[in-house]
Fold each of these.
Amino acid sequence: MMIQWFGSRVPRKGHDLGQRGGAPCPRLLAGTLIVLLGVAFGRVPAIGAAAAPEQIIVAVPNDIISLDPEAQAEFSTRMIMEGAIEENPVRLSSAGEYQPLLATAWRIVDPSTWEFTIRQGVRFHDGEPLTAETMKFSIDRCLNPANKCPRRGQLVEIKEAVVLNSSTIRVITQLPSAALPTALTYLPIVPMKALQADPQLYGKTSVGTGPMRFVEWVKGQRLVTERFDGYWDKKSAFKRIVYRPIPEAVTRVAALRSGEVDMISNLDPEMGSIVERTPGLRIDRRGMRMIFIALDATGANNPALADKRVRQAMNYAVDKNVLIKNILGGNAFANVGAMFPINPGFDRTLKPYPYDPEQAKRLLVAAGYSNGFDVTLTFAPGIEGSLKTAEIVQSIASDLAKVGIRAQISQVEPAAHWERYYAKRLQMFVGTWGSSPEAGLQFRTLLHSKARGLYYRDPQADKLIDAYFSAMDPNARAESGRLLHRYVHEEAPFIFLYHQYQIFGLRSNITWAPRPVEFIYVSDLDWKP
Amino acid sequence: MLLWLLLRRLAAAGVVLFGVLTIVFFITRLSGDPITLLAGTEASLADVAQLRAQFGLDQPLPVQYGHFVANVVKGNLGASLRYRQPALTLVLERLTATIQLAAAAACIAVVTGLTLGILAAVRPFSVWDHVSMAFAVVGQTVPSFWLGILLILIFPLRLGWFYTSGYGTIGHLVLPAVTLGLFQAARLARLSRGGMIDVLVQDYVRTARAKGLPRWKVVTKHGLRNALLPLLSVLGIDVGTLLSGAVVTETVFSWPGIGQLAVQSVFARDYPVVQAVVLVASIAFVLANLCADIAYSLADPRIRYG
Amino acid sequence: MDSPAAAHAAAPQRSAAGSPRTAWRRARRHVKLIFGGAILLVMLAGAGAAPGLALHNPFVAAPAHRLWPPAWASGGTSAHLLGTDQLGRDILSRLIYGARVTLIVGICSVAIAMPVGTAAGLLAGFRGGRVDALLMRLVDTQLSIPFLLLAISIISVVGASTINTVLVLALGGWPMYARVVRAETLSLRERDFIEAARAIGGSRVRVVARHMVPHVMGTVSVIGSFATAQMILLESSLSYLGLGVQPPVPSWGRMLSEGQSYVMLAWWLATFPGCAIALTVLAINFIGDWVRDRLSPQTRLL
């Protein structure tokens, strides 16, 4: 059967199949054929309905996972849902401070108790009023292990929530925690009555207090939301907002430029510059995600990394400015000591490690590695929102090679990365920290030995971190923050790199109030003709 | 006779499907689990362990396999770990889109490929021959993601035709279908040209021509039927290639089909969905092969399956 | 009307043996081999001579020089003939080194898949019965899992590297040989000369090796040559999905997939590796065509 077509042969010239053999013609490319096919199928104009602000379409790389805010902790889902349909008790202002949202005020009653006042007059999309009971319900729902809420980890410091009256709630923590409001930025307030009536509510629809109400979700295609006229704050400037997933970056940019969508997220700096050059479009930079190379300071997988001098040498060896200027196109600023500028206690007198390969070599010799050493650098492209991870990593590896540190690059996909991470198999790896930039949680989660203790265990650091999070008085907090900052800078558990902005592309007519987070808050959007 | 053959093939297909599910089961679980991805990057170790226990992923592999088989027999492929919805439902929701894409691509491939191939065969060394062979060559050397992006940049962006991405109208279907179908079209052009030439030089064709039959009648009546036979068995294998190719094409054009779902689920280690996708793909492959074989044996009574 | 035999017979009469015209005619029959072979030889030579041929280090990043256009475009320099990539590395040098990886991946994966698949097909076709059923079920099982999904899953387990890419591609390739060889073996098995060989008392292995293998090799070589091209393309799809060879090792497929995200800005990143892939695949297909055309009289006489 199949032998037949292998036995075909080319007919010889002079073999008459009823057609004279023509002279050889120049070969035409298949592109012509495809174009002809395109013409045959007919023209369809591709102009989106973006001229009037009735509806705007936002294109993001990933579809949302679930309508239930307490069933997922994925950033791509949160970026859309929090700020459109759901809301949290507090939000970050443009200055990086906690801003009242569903909670209007808060105070510390005693070191383990915070008291929040709930905003009056807020209603859910289905009409249910927001009360302190609703907030307690939301907290309990997430803390309940049976619900498998992935965000539980951020809220686990809460021991219990006690309702005082319909507008006041007390949150009691296990240990004194100065950063409780930060934890609450992970807590979406869910509709108590609707869920009590129908526990499977989120399988069909989503109900929240946000400026947009849920209309429909067709998986993989679109999430449609509509303006909620009963919103307690400034209403949405747009009647409908549609969110579409477009995974391929070039396609996203093409969709924006062709007018099919009005706003896109997760742009590369180069794509950003293309969008900037296009008339009618502009870019917006948001967030300050911290990118670093984590080092296994326990030395379990590579003894060289246990030596502080080696880690500092690595910091001197990497040219951060080239990374920021050339690879990221200026879309970042240097990081100092793993702290965000808006963290309390950020020491402005500290400067980032300068680029000094000679100093790096001196430190390596002092540590006994005059011939350098081998190390494995693991990364997953785009992990946790990092831009141009592959290029950054290769550039760093080249820099390290110049001082004798031979870094072998290992590219894996995100799931494999996390698996190796939790199995303590990594030596050097790319890490990021993007959410809650105001509280310094990165220290607690990444460096405290009780939190994970996988790659860094230092009793002295633990003491400083505990002091930082239990200092309830702002001045005490700032002071302990300074101490912590200097210590971490000196200890160099990471190669400190930079804070990157996330780049959004949008129509020039869309204005967007600045805020240091990457979520798309609908109430920050407006239209300028 | 045919019924008996059918039953035997179906039984064999059942074995194949079971084997497929088992292989996928073990490969996916060997590659790690989705818990660390689900828990988010800021979860503590205790949360990760607890989440894992709640999803039953901390049990030994054979135990998990036992549960899995018991469920599959009942028709339950489990719930997606990410979406928290039944895996099979998720796949079937998106199956329509992939079938539309694959069918359109197959149509493009068959129409373009056959036309060009046959034209090349009946007019050797002419413009048509060179055009179709150039097409065949170019079509087989271009990776689909590159072609897809090229088409996006030319048509919707430069010319304003069609759409860069999305789903809903025929206009949305055109570019993805061309991207997916081009490779197959090129292959078919070569194969049909070869097969056609083979047939056309046969004696019985010359006899028909000598008898005075017009050429088009000879081509369609005798040539086409005999040349198409080997193509049928080749098309059967190609369902798998189409689904594979759909994976990349669906990502580039954001086409909401099972290919994209499959890739996302593999990267997210969402086992139930991966299993469901592979099951559906395998059923499609087996059915396609079966149909091709039946069509083949019907068309050529000389073929017997021993 | 001329028959092929008559045409062949007629040709030598028209010109004296040894004249340029005869030589030209003979050459034209082999034009595909000449053309394809020449390209492939250039590729192989370039790959082999890579260290001496490449002017710049293709592995070391130089971000200060990134995205320089080719020498003939504005902004380009003659030091970098085809421009630099997103990390400032010379594209021409990376193309030359990339030839190594791409050709190794393409050729090795076929070199593994071909004997394995052929052996399986021979075994299945010759022994028949349960062995046949088992092997064909295995082939069907594997074929019914979309290859890309299988590749992603396996690479997630074993990790991405050049050797793993070769193995995964080989895994994807062997069923094709098995199926076709089995079909040929089934038909060959009944033929007289095989029956005769068995009747004489030759051991089964001997019969298979001496008599069957030569006959299937023709078909197998044709598949092999086309499969090489397909493997090269699959490698670039794997790189697009983030699997495939590890950075900073250049392979054409990886360069292509990395370059296509710069296609609006720096067309040269993707175009040159794309052309290299296209040219190589073209050459391999030509050679495959030639092999098939050369063998066709024999296969047709079987």
Amino acid sequence: MFDLTPDEWTAIHLSIRIAVVATVVALPFGIAVAWVLARKDFWGKSLLDGIVHLPLVLPPVVTGYLLLISFGRRGPIGAFLDEHFGIVFSFRWTGAVLACGVMAFPLLVRAIRLSFEAIDRRLEDAAGTLGASPLQAFFTVTLPLALPGVIAGMVLCFAKALGEFGATITFVSNIPGETQTISAAIYTLTQVPGGDAAAFRLVVVAIVISLAALIASEWFARRAGLRYHGD
Amino acid sequence: MLVVDIEKRLGEFEIKVAFESQGSVTGLFGSSGSGKTSVVNMVAGLIKPDRGRIALDDTVLFDSTARVNVPMHRRRIGYVFQEGRLFPHLSVAANLDYGRRMSRLPHDDAEQRRIVDLLDIGHLLDRRPGRLSGGERQRVAVGRALLMRPRLLILDEPLASLDAARKREILPYLVRLRDEAHMPMVYVSHQAGELRRIATTVVRLDGGRVMQTGGLELLDQADLDAL
């Protein structure tokens, strides 16, 4: 029973691609926002914090709908991007990336922010006295020391992106080969008679991918931890 | 020559300090809370004075009226912190090389070997800071600060976290640094005994003010005051 059909393989490939791209694209923004939230005090900081965390508490359908009316073809941002850069999100896999990225963003920011806050800032001063500009100090001291948290955040982000359903289906629908991820495919299969076996196969695949990501992150984090605190 | 004339308010505490140091090792002496660390932090550029002027030889580092404030990473002032502050994710060798890399100085193997030998840390190069004893850690911290070729070396209570035996182990290296490397230093301590070994001039601070400036005899006076 474990022969996956071409359609199922397509859904698996698509899911992994969407989750990987969402994680990679979200990472620099996540690091920047986490750093600002961990280190800066400014007017409107709690507002930024709130907006970043909003997808965590809003119903995913609401987030998806908000994306649809702003990033859709006729939405203000979507129309602008289409017109000037030829970037289209609606009903494309790139839209699924956007939806997954937005939904996973709070988890990414949270993990990285916590690791920034745990770093001894006096080490950054030491780097400064040794001639490192603030940017150099960030890339040679702060970020390497935060690496275990960054990896944890990336795995959380990947897992969330892989399993994202509500916002994605609302924003870019459920088009096989374009926006139909594992989750959407499972949902579809449970709606049709005789789809149980196929749904079960995809469930097993989802479990395997998630476990693999978790184990990989443990391994990376342990290696990073050893590098920093061992010998 | 280091010229310091600064004011800084830190909450209720006010620092108002002026001194010039010609000696090769200026001992900044005073009890804890006298403002010693704040003064050297302003010299190194870690904190900004409210008003005043700091100059090293013919370079102005800070001048509030001329609106000069050289950022710390361009001051070329080596700083040995009380707790060493070695980078835990880098080997001893990479810690030692860090200042040279960041300041984009060329490799100088001879200089590196000279300082590694002077501080006797050659056998530690492959280790991580987490595996060093307190004394070894401070020697590496001194080496790291020296290898960025500073114009001035600040040592803020570098021996305070060490026991008496470790202090005796490190002080001779610092004296060699003074006599062989001719590195101008500002040495912060509340221990008269330590300063008597290393300092050539003494600035005595109390309550954020300079009480006296002079030679080592100020330390004897301090001992008498303490009695």
Amino acid sequence: MSSPASRESRDSWPGMYGLVFLAVTLGLLTAYALQPQRLASLVDEVGWIKAVAKLILVHGVRTS
Amino acid sequence: MLDFLKAIWNAMFHFGFLGSDLRTWAGMLLLVTLSGVIWITWFLWLAGQSQNLLFAVVGSGLLCMAQIIATELGVGLARALYGPVLAATNLGLAAGIFFAGVWPVRTKILRRQKEWLAHLRSARPSRFVWALLLLVALAAARSGLQAFFLPPREWDALVYHFPIMAYIYQAHAIEPIISPGIRTTTYPFNGELLALWNLIFVGVDKLVDLAALPGILTGAVAVYGIARHWGASRNGAAAGAAVFAFAPTMVIQQVSAHGDALMASVFAMGVYCILASVPDRTAEVQDYVLAVLAGTAIGLIAAIKYAGLFYAAGLAILFMVKLAVRRSHLGSLVSQRGQARIVFPILVAAILALALAGYPYLRNIVVFRNPLAPFNVRLAGYTIFKGERETAELITTNTPPNLLKAPLPERLVMIWLEPYASIYDESVSGSGPLWFFLGLPSLLVWVVHNIVRRKWEQTLITLLVLLSYAATPAFWVPRYGIPIVLLGALALAWIFGRLKQGVQRVLCAEVLLGACFVVFLTMDLGSVDPRVLRDYMAWRTDITRSSAEFAWEGRGALLYVEDKTRISPARITYSGLVQFVYPLYGPDFRNMVVYIPPTNELGWQSRLDQERIGLVITVESKPQYKWISDDPEFVRVSSHGGYYVFARK
């Protein structure tokens, strides 16, 4: 019985197909990343995490 | 000396650790131990049935959840749903399975454990797989911390998911729920029973939000398993599993009462168990293993939520097709005896499925004459079951108005692009970046490939998921349609193996980028202010953490009840339109919450006395408001956001 990997290698795509697929995924990634709210979400998130970290670092967390 | 020991004992109870006293810690330890015993017993049983480690891991996850739910239903219907009874029942069952199914084949199981250990030692996961595992651990740690320090606070959780759990907990019974909330009285509740398991030994609602976490993590393992079953490499299967596991809905619902992620995970587990439980075509017993696992998955999924019925039907079809194909390979389908052999596993699966999912549907038939109450069920224009709500309501209430106007393809693309809000907003986002830029294009290629190459197994599963997806009301809302991500995950795992190494590396980078993005964005706790989080982490205990603080309406009134009952618990009743019922119980369920239906003034007031009600919470538009205002025994003590609290003088 062949292993999964060896079964796969018999069926690999020509390089060009792979590159086209990659280009499509990168194109969609770019479209997703360039959504208007995306940067705002990241900035919000950094702000939230910073605020939590600051509060904990300044005041500490009780352990008992 | 005795006084000294007593003082230490009291100190351990009162000061506790991380906000929990010794009793809670002991309860949590008991919960983990019992869950571990159940899981390990099933794991060992499956180790005796199959050489496949992943199959044993996923199957035991499924059977563990099923045992928990089945025993809760069993002792609940016997009106004996108490912690010790439930623990004893489960330990008894585990012992029975151990002595009947594990002990007789212990040599085989031990040998297999050694083989698996050796295999795990020799298997060297790639850096890509390690990185993904680290991200999974980070997300799970975030869920654990969140549940540990913060009380339940989602709208649906406070309005009906946890009121169902709390009602069963206080009634010590599975019975028709008396409540003005139509969702509380009608919805199926397997997810709530899992939450009850996390509550019943602990006594406080510290871990109830985490009930779905083990199932969701096992679901990701199942996706990896399906991909491997179809020949994907380890990296390919891991990339696929990442599309599923790092969909924001899956991460957010690790710590949630919503059943969508759990439903998708149980579906993946069911599919994997059905596909992988054919290791030995000659052994008759395998049919029953397949039947037990399929029946369990079908039953679990059918009563997590109504939409689960579509996916349960899909699993049932897959199970019967696999069974028939296997029997025909054995050449026994043509003979009469062979046909009898196929009927018996189907019967076993059906009985298990009915045992796990039958109760809520049967209750709805008896009480509401509609298994899918409160919804109107129509087929081809004919009303089959009459209900008071339309499924169309689900669509309009859950879809933003600007999306409702858009044609379906545009609506789907807009939802998948997640342009409206932060990723942690479940109403308009939740499929995640990995689905959009990896899962979706992979799926399109995979579907064509499967049809052209006549990969019927893959095509059948794709078809079943797509049909169930399309049948779900408001399926474009990412959390309702989350099972579709499973197809993208499997498609990516397949494509991965067909790419050259250089392209695979870039894909790995894309997967990691998307997974990091999701883990990072889901760290935020939505509406929780950092100062509130710190306050909870630093000062709150199991008794002072309160869902009331996060209620979306009537917060002041609910907080009043919370404060007033901290020292002296009360018996509380409420009226319809008091939506946020769960905070009334208190985090340690100190208050007995009883709904008294409003028949007439005198009758209702006399029930207040009979039930020794100390607090009444109502809204102005309900008759109870007038009746309680007229009652000289009660006085108004608080009002906020339309909620009014009356206390007995």
Amino acid sequence: MSEATVTARDAAPPAETPEMELFHARSWLTQYVFCQDAKVIAIQYSGTAVAIGLVALALSWVIRLQLAFPGAFAFINAEVYYQSVTMHGMIMVVYMLTAIFLGGFGNYLVPLMVGARDMVFPFINMLSYWVYLLATLVLAASYFVPGGPTGAGWTLYPPQSILSGTPGHDYGIIMMLASLILFIVGFTMGGLNYVVTVLQARTRGMTLMRMPLTVWGIFAAAVMALLAFPGLFVACVMLLLDRVLGTSFFMPNIVELGEHKNYSGGSPILFQHLFWFFGHPEVYIVALPAFGVVSDLISVHARKNIFGYRMMVWAIIAIGVLSMVVWGHHMYVSGMDPWFGFFFAVTTLAIAVPTALKVYNWVLTLWRADIHFTTPMLFALGFLVTFVNGGITGLYLGNVIVDVPLSATLFVVAHFHMVMGIAPVLVIFGAIYHWFPKITGRMMDEGLGRVHFWITFLGAYAIFFPMHYLGLLGVPRRFYEMGQTAFVPHSAELLNIFITVTALVVGFAQTIFFFNLFRSLKHGALSGGNPWRAASLEWQTPETPPGHGNWGKTLPVVYRWAYAYSVPGAPEDYLPQNAPPIAGEHSQ
Amino acid sequence: MSVMGLFFVFIASMSVLWLWRQGVMSEDWLEEGDVANYSGSARSSPSAAKVGLGVFLAVAGCLFSLLTAAFFMRMASPDWQAPPMSSILWFNTLALVASSATIQTAQFAARRGDRDRIGPWLAASGAFALVFLLGQLWAWRELIDAGAYASGNPANAFFYLLTGAHGLHLIGGLVALARTIRRAWRDRQDAGLATSVELCAIYWHFLLFVWLLLFMMLTGKADALGAICRRVLA
């Protein structure tokens, strides 16, 4: 590139987004509560998600206490146990992980990373959060209705979810379905924003193929969520009608407590199709943003450009597309046509190809890199290992003949906790340690961060590795008591006690994280604008934390991709995306 | 299932086309400096609101495709008994067609810059849409009078569910339409009015299209359509 063209291009004026009027807060209430600034909405989303997530964490202790010490605690009867299992699963998957990745990180990072002033529809964005909060409150309120929350398992399969014998079959299930419907309505408003912001509000020079992978991950996940959540929506509405109006969408001819119910001919399998049509993409709705964030963490903290950028983008898209056609692998035991089973097994195993590509590219990014073992990097590496572990057991379960005996055992529980529980949560922690300086202007404590990482990482393995073994022994999931199961040896009980004690320790150890978080808000070391010397756009804001409108007077102009690290000839070992080209700069 | 398949092939091809046009195949990350083919301002590309509506229609389309798929899967069971179709549905369909036609006229007026005509045509469209909704409620009442309750037969339940979902979408559209009408009457210099009218028109045509498909399904004409498609393909 000659110097003449550089100066000519330099002179190009930065693009303004003409059609967008920024929202301006007029009072304390509109600045901090009913705020339309995506950054404030992000904090609200994350705070709510973490709060309800802590409730779900406490519920997991209830489950674990019962499994390790059956009957030892008077307050854990079968009803409470099943309600805890259900609420733990539903909260963690939908109300915590989905909300924090898309509502939290999506809102905070997407406008900053693509160089926009805000989301394109700020009012709808604000509405999205308030509907989400309402959904969360309705869910929590189900603890206070007669009969308590539903205990149908997070899959809410009819017919049992609305028949007596299942806890909360009278009001709890109605609250749950209403809450999910609200959540989906709220999410659709947010999802529209993330997608349209990425498509329409990118700043000058920020082409699709220069976007950081975090944005790609969130974008693909938002598109998938917009197409997958209608499945859950339809299932919820129809189940609600079955419960309230007595329709027979899903309810077959059935006798309840000796009484012939008025239902006839409905298909519970239809519900399973609709549910898993949402349920499987949901895994990748959580995983794709995590993939994106991890790519950025690894690249920044290894001071090296991401290996195979285009491959990473296409892998995200391929995973997104494939994950829409694999839902049947959750239904191998529902008595499906063997040809369907074959089809779903093939598509499921095919997902391993783009996923493995991503893993190889992460590893190759680390290869001979200048790795800094900062807390975010530790969490990113922890994710890498955990995701590979969880992914490999996924290959087992994707095969019909292996899945049938393992179905509904703790092996499945261990698999999905590794792959979509622990792995994304490690990314969330890493991302918080990484972006905390941008959000607050202060660093979190490194030492406490490392202690937190090692306890969480090793603890998670101590919890879920033995669970694979229990699953192989045939210990079933969701059972309140083992009863007369002669095939479960005594050692399984000891292992269960070990798992429970570890779970309690790891759970309480999270106070280290919260202590660090709140202490650093006030007393953390001042970070400056770009403590990690990162190249992507969100670190180049004129103010830290970014002010209202993000970019001061003019929007930034982007000259290169987000991974210009260790560029030969550059004054520092990174080149910000918006730094004008230096003379003689060449492709990486 | 084939309904969902068709829908997803459509969505996927639209997305790929879109990404292609946005330059997903270029190798920008290897280039330094401003990108040569960057379009600068958003003059040639559609507005954010229009893209937003497009994405929303994809979501709504997904919702209706799933309902349709569920309809056909449930229909296969032996207890399916289609309710008596009231002839008012034909009248309603005409009202919705008229609503779509009038809103299109309003859009033509907006495109010509003929501001005096926009308001009345929009109002006419809204009135036709209200007639459609009242007609749908009338159809519900007739069914209930005939003893065809939602709990009686899955075919009845699907009738209420599909018409209800479609009606709710139309009510949402009417809120947007009412705001557009207010803008058309109030502010002469409103530059964004033409866009609003266009967005309303797109949404109206979409709902008309969905209704025509639903109407065919509910009256049992969908099989005939399927047969024609098969013959054309063969």
